[in-house]
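Fold this complex.
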Amino acid sequence: MDKLTQNYNSGVFFDELIDATGKARAPAQQLLEYLDNLPTEELEKRRITAEATVQEMGISFTVYTEEGNIDRAWPFDIVPRTIAAKDWAITAQGLKQRLTTLNRFIDDLYHDQRCIKDGIIPEHIIKDSKNFRPECVGVSPKYGVWAHICGTDLVRDEHGEFFVLEDNLRVPSGVSYMLENRAITKRVLPELFENDEILPVGAYTSDLFDTLAALSPRDIERPEIVVLTPGIYNSAYFEHAFLAQQMGVELVEGSDLFVDEDDCVYMKTIYGPERVDVIYRRIDDLFLDPEAFHPDSVLGVAGLMRAWKAGNVALANAPGAGVADDKVVYAYVPELIRYYLNEEPILKNVETFLCDNEEDREYVLAHLDELVVKPANESGGYGMLVGPHSTKKEQQLFAELIKANPRNYIAQPTLKLSTAPTLIGKGSLEPRHLDLRPFILQSKDTYVTTGGLTRVAMRKGSLVVNSSQGGGSKDTWIVDTKGA
Amino acid sequence: MLSRVAERLYWSARYLERVENTARLVSVYDDLLYDLPQNVVEISWYNLIEINSGVEAFNHRYKVRDERNVVKFLLSDDDNPSSLLSSLTLARENIRTTRDVLPNEMWELVNELDLYAKQNIKQGINRSARHAYLNTIIEGCQKIIGLLAATMDRDAGWQFLILGRYLERVDMNTRILDAATSLMMQAQPGQDMELGQVVWSKVLKSQSAYLSFRRTMRCSIRGAKAVTFLLNDPYFPRSQRYCAEQIKLAAASLPRAGIVIACADKLLEHTRTVEHSSELNTEFSNYLNDIQLDIIALHHQITENWFNFQKGEAA
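Structure:
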């Protein structure tokens, strides 16, 4: 019988499970041995079980199309991605270092702006940032922390080194899929969980609860925490409901809350109004409060900014935190780490060209066919140019966009993203590119997820992992190989 | 519990009950029309539109008041907000957004029912398969009620489901009694005995009350007895008294219930018996109208008390 991994070859790319000589990497050894001994029929059975489990558990996400919104089942690959625990420990340190810095930076921007005065970051970058909120100047959230929940996208290059691709500090999503991926995998490959080498991921929701509870402005035993969702038609509604349920807190919509004359936030319950202490909001800044931002927003709560500024309610993430997830600011993060912490960055940035900078811009315009160009403030993989996969016409369009608004564009070399074996068709493993989104929590304490959400570009050769654009996902195993 | 969640639960129960009642009503009417003595009275499918306060919407849409149009209007029309399919869609929407407080299987069951109802709607409209179609709908509703009874916590959410279900049920009960009464008043002198037998036994059947009536009342089926049973029987789960008692009980285990309990008490006070079939006249019709007003007031109080919320009345 042919072994499943026999003809597997990831070419020039770093493969997460199998090294260049075709041997299993240490953390993947047991997994691959197991899969190699599984008959094709049995493997197919497991794949079908996974599909059925996704359906049964109702794991879905919403895609917006011209024909309306479609609730799609979560595309899932049953072959887990493995990472050695000792490698992960260093990465996790790097993530903590990074979020600590970003929070110092945000707090600085809304107070003394020392980093600008000391010449670390140019003033106009902040002044022109779409996500800088003058309304937040002078506000001091608890612990000086603004970004409580951060999803950082990591990629591995051809040598297997982790790089930070971007920091998501506004309303990052995906953590529920990380938890569900594990739940599915436990059903599909239960035999592999019999030894304790795969570290558990289940602590996230209780860590999130602790992180949020520590933000309560009132010193009471059971602070009232809520998850604020834009509603059922939001693409991440499944996750909002999941997190609220797992934490045992209310899932509320804007119309469930109001701010009273005492500048406190209340929710409308059958017992009467109940005061709310902490709001984990999954609504963008500008929709939070029609009094302060978009006056026609029906998603938010009138007076919420007033209540927050008065210190009567905590918002996670704090309004204005998004200023640090600008892709231009991103380029300065290594410098900011040195500046605020006096430490060397543990995790590197991907090389980044700022179109705002004349020399960089000239280079970018001359190399549009090689580079990936991204707008500074988009998420979900929208509005990007992937040079090597683009037409001359698209490149021309981007050249014009860049010239018209250089501050809004950055460019990065096309990355040689790492791959992992992915089940494509019956009994056939093929390399597919992937990234990793760990989640970092910070308030009184700092937590990093064990691994994170691995997203896979399911199409051959594709580098786009976003679920809105044909990406899938797989379980992520941090494997403790006991020093191996 | 959030007021919004409570309100959605209340409405999901009302719509689900409406689905079942509509199916029962059409089903029994089918049966009734075949059993009526020939030419005793002008009775038509259109009576069903009057029972359901659908006159304006129906006439807006249809010119011909025939069986097909009436059944289409009651079962499938989008622009009739109370049609079986409209009610089922609304029940499903309300359940979709309250899944976290309901048993897991609830969503699956209501989806199943919704799919069946939509895919097979033609069977409901054409006479030949109508009975089977409506029966499947009724069974689907009962499956959901059974699931809830067996698996749901008796918390505030449960009480709102009870409020919604029994309010809708008592509402339909008065409508059916009213329809039968007005039908009987149209009867020619001398025909009323024969007609009464048919009409009142169908009324009891539409409420699944036929056997229970037989066991409890131990008498032949007469208007006064049937009406008394459907208004005042303390044990039959579709009678006015029973529904009002259930509403009162559910309200009593919810916070700040005083005014709602008072409303339910009023409905109970107004729940009466009928001594003789000759009392089933215009005056009785007016009485049923007053009961409708009591029910509207009760719904209004439930809404104001727990769902609509005045800013500033701090807890």
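Residues 351-413 of chain A form a domain with the Dna Ligase; domain 1 fold (CATH 3.30.1490.270).
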